[in-house]
Amino acid sequence: MKKADMLAYKERLLALRARLRGDVNALASHALRQSDDDGGDSSSMPIHMAELGSENFEQEFSLSLMETEETTLTAIDTAIERVDQGTFGKCVECEGVVPKTRLNAIPFTPVCVRCAEKLEGI
């Protein structure tokens, strides 16, 4: 892959990482908000058990999204390292070329389509 192409992908990866970090921070502050926000006033406490269940579900859902986005952030950081090492665009499994169409869809992917199918058991 040409250096100019690698730099363009690196810029996309950096932008995607910045956006996801903002999303993770927003999810964290929403899911883990403190009772300090209301000055210790318990009026924001749910009165009905169904409300409490809904809030618990929402918090669990947010935490699950955060975990998924953290995994994606790790994959992005690894892809940026591959750009810096000059190995970006090469499958880490078979060392074949990862097609640009795949990289355009999933710029942080470390594997080609064939290896992804093997890894996912398709």
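The record above closes out task 2.4. Task 2.5 opens with a second protein, given below.
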Amino acid sequence: MPKLVDHKKRKIKIAEATWKVIVNEGLEEASVRKIAKVANISVGSLRHYFSTQSELFVFSMQLVSDRVENRAKNKSYEGTPLEAMQDFLSEFLPIDMDRRIEMEVWLVFSTKTLVDPALKELSQVVYDDMHQACSMVVERLTDLGLSSPNLDKNMEIERLYALIDGMALHGILHPDRFSAEKMQATLKYHLESLCEGV
């Protein structure tokens, strides 16, 4: 009887091999041949799942987004509303090894969006999703009556997004100077600054 192959798992395995090559050797070394070797499959098998390198990169980038989104949605949040919001936003920061790998891969792919229309389209979708997450946090602070009365919600949504994005970048590029603890402390300080009497 022929062995049944779980095609979704195989595609994820290939995407994870792509991540590994990118993190260890850089995007310029992420050839189909090298990725196939790391995934322990033939080049022909890889091309069966992804006919082009761009198609592989889009799937790999989407997998990063899906994992972050699933973790954020399925997590159990505890503590005060501010603590829960900090915990939620921390899912988008490289504060542990899994999140660091995801963010590093995402940032590498982001440079490729300048020349790859398919990656650019996906990047725009994720940008909108992240913007929505920041909007949800600011709106929640307002709904709970925690935010300062003169808060400019639209401006604060943009500022929160820029803060998260910037901290993620610095956390990847300068982990020795911008640690997970510093990211968490900065995020906590910022959220408290949006609130009245906290």
